[in-house]
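Note to self: the last two entries modelled the partners one at a time, which told us nothing about the interface. This time every component goes in together.
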Amino acid sequence: MSASSSDPRLPAAYLMPGSSSFSEFLALQAPDLLPSRRAAPTSHAGDLAPHGTTIVAATFPGGVLMAGDRRATMGNIIAQRDIQKVFPADEYSAVGIAGSAGLAVEMVRLFQTELEHYEKIEGTTLSMDGKANRLAALIRANLAMAMQGLAVVPLFAGYDSDAEQGRIFSYDVTGGRYEETAFHSVGSGSLFARGSLKKLYRDDFTEVECATAVVQALYDAADDDSATGGPDITRRIFPVVHVITETGGRRMAETEVAAIADAVISSRMSRPDGPAAALT
Amino acid sequence: MSMPFYVSPEQLMKDRADFARKGIARGRSVVAVQYADGILFVSENPSQALHKVSEIYDRVAFAAVGRYNEFENLRIAGVRLADMRGYAYDRRDVTGRGLANAYAQTLGTIFSSGGEKPYEVEIFVAEVGDLAEQDQIFRLTYDGQVADEHRYAVMGGATEVVAKHLSEHYVEGASLEDAVRLAVSALGQTPGENGAGTTERVIATAHLEVAVLDRTRTQPRKFVRLVGQRLDALLGERGPVTPDPPAEATPKQEPAPDSPADPTDQVSGQVPPLENPVTGEPPVAPPIAPSGAPPAPRPEPTDPVQPPTGPEPT
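The predicted structure of the combined assembly is written out below.
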């Protein structure tokens, strides 16, 4: 920002024809603002900052939804009870973050700006695969931090208007990008959430049924993973559920999620392990 | 060596202004109209891909007339500036005023520096607020002047007839439907025969570029293009489309003959500004590079009027 803060004129570089990628422009103009340009710590730094935990995504006919619990932990401490870990990336996609919360939130902000910048400059949106690849590039740049325990592992989901269906992508710390079918989960409670969804998922879900299934999965994750927060009925804090369909994305209203969570909790009063699946 | 040709600073600025103004007047008008829920932009633009009206940021939009490559450059710079500021600070810290200021400084510097051709553009930077009183429209001219516009604004093309129609029919707090109809009928105004009154053309829907900054949108990004069926529904039944008169297709020829006595006369549009009209030698940096021009020095021409040497602005 140094050039623009001292001189009111548009800096020459802004008027140069060039890339439509915001992160590339940032790397040339204000590299200190890039999350990946931080000096990597020399020793393990994983316990210094809060960690986000479990994110779940599942597709249903005509869309996809993503949900995240609300807990951030720092070692044995609950750092925050109502953190938001699922963000809209643009109108038709959402990104959920597990791992080092501070780095992840910054990466999401850069990713959101990246997609919007491309859309405004080019006059068209990136393809679903294009978006997924841009996110992979941002994660790859964070590898040095990941080696010191500050990993960011997002889950990316969106509605692909070409394929006319919801799609889910998972990542590893090296920037590897993997497309998932039907449902996926990341974070510390992901094993339990995925096991739960395996038994609950059907491919003919309605939007509300799909939301109920992911809230059940997050409940199961919280049941067995101390770092995942369950529904907080005394404070009325419930998971963030982001739904994306052909008409765009929206965060499911607090009252809608509360109704689903209340139904899940009341059914667990009689059977704490949740709904039983048929044996055969 | 020929003697350096003296041009007074007043004349230099006037020539540059004439040059820019002429380029801008050749295009077609863009209007911005304040309505109940925000700001509406309408322009006559046969191209579906090369936009005159665009989104800059959540609440800020950009509209321009003149040379496409020049205002596209400014638009991209504006998007970069806004995204950079929004990323470094916060989304709310990106304002139309800040952007208008950056454009004004840039255009002003380019206009007054002898080394560069002045930009042949005129720009609106508009910002929609939470309330109608907070809506802002800034008009920026080729020389970096900024004006704060209210109710409606027109730039490019036949501004007088369009502005006259708007001033006669504009109503505060109109609905989107009324505002679109008003703006489209204003753009369709053409001076009648013998300068008596005006007739109204019906512009094809496909040739209209319509966009709004709508404060009632729930998303943070308030800019929406109105196209296809939604635009047809807003416009209603308008009768058959008036074919473009042939005069519209080609830029109007300037009527007045050039005065050979005045070497700086630009009226005929035959001499690119800043070119030495006697020797035909370009100044330090030519405003329009004559393609394949013979290297200086050239023999003194008998007539100061040179044949056109540069491409016409679009």
